[in-house]
Each structure stands twice: as C-alpha cells, then as structure tokens.
Amino acid sequence: MFSIRTMQIGDYDSVAALMQETPGISLRDADSRESTARYLERNPGLSFVACIEQNIIGCIMSGHDGRRGYLQHLLVHPQQRKKGVAHALLESCLAALEQIGIHKSHIDVLKTNEAGAAFWQHQGWHKRTDIERYSFIRSADANA
C-alpha cells in the first residue's frame, strides 16, 4: 500500500530521477533544485509525493495565482500505475487548493503525451479548445 505526504525539498533527487524515467515528462532548467525549492516555499502544502515505505513512487506539484490552481508534473512510476496512486495524488492536491479557496485548476500536457491526455480526460478534465498558450523565454537558454 502507498501513502501520500507533502513534498519537501529533500525529496528533490528522488522526484527528479522519477521524472527522468517517466515518458511524457519534460525536465527543464526550471525544474532545478533551486527553482523547485522556491516553488515549494511559495506554494506551501500544495505539492505531494506518494511513497511505498521510504521510496517515492509518484509526485504532483501545484501552485496558484490567487484565483486558479496550476498543476504540474503528475507522475507515477510505471510499475505502480493503475493502483489509484495518481488519483490519490490529484485529490490531495485539489483538496489542498480548495482549502485556500481555489476551485478551478489547469494543467498543461505535452501534445506527445497520449497517456497523460487519456488520464486527464478519464478524470473528467476537459481539453480547452478556446485558448492557446503562448510562452516567452527571456533568456538565451531554450530549455528554461
């Protein structure tokens, strides 16, 4: 059986390794230890890990802008999928957001991540067709 707990910066190495092993997840410079520490400090109690004993088998990170929640990096080790881990992580995250008054959340899914898209649709999330996301990198680093 697995347990869910709040993510701490001490979990970074395990989470980063899991991200690197998970198809459909993109690890960028913005996912560095320093950036992750800032994110967790800015959004306390909104990111979670799933564990079996001391081993991290899943993660979800989230934050908010005061109005909307933004979920990132929901991932579960491939051998632990289809056991309710992703759903439990998602529910933990949405409940924490709801406690601070955030009732609507968004997630970005890479177009190449078919398994991710299927998961979100199965959870009742709706693919937006009325908006497009634009990004701007204020750096020479394309992996920012």
Helices and strands: which structural class? alpha+beta
Q: Give the CA-CA distance, first to last residue.
A: 37 Å
Briefly note the CATH topology name: Aminopeptidase
Could you tell me the radius of gyration in angstroms? Answer: 15 Å
CATH class: Alpha Beta
Enzyme class: transferase
Domain N-acetyltransferase: 2-144
Protein name: GNAT family N-acetyltransferase
EC number: 2.3.1.-
Strands, helices and their partners?
Blueprint: E1 3-6, H1 12-21, H2 33-42, E2 48-52, E3 55-64, E4 69-76, H3 85-99, E5 105-107, H4 114-122
Parallel strand pairs: 4-5
Antiparallel strand pairs: 1-2, 2-3, 3-4
Concise account of the structure shown:
The protein is built from 4 helices and 5 strands, in the order βααβββαβα.
Describe the structure.
The protein is of the alpha+beta class. The protein has a single domain, classed as Aminopeptidase (3-Layer(aba) Sandwich), CATH 3.40.630.30. The chain has helices spanning 12-21, 33-42, 85-99, 114-122; strands at 3-6, 48-52, 55-64, 69-76, 105-107. A five-stranded mixed β-sheet has the order 1-2-3-4-5, sandwiched between helices. A hairpin with a 4-residue loop joins strand 3 and strand 4. It starts with a strand and ends in a 22-residue tail after the last helix. The model has no long low-confidence stretch (mean pLDDT 92).
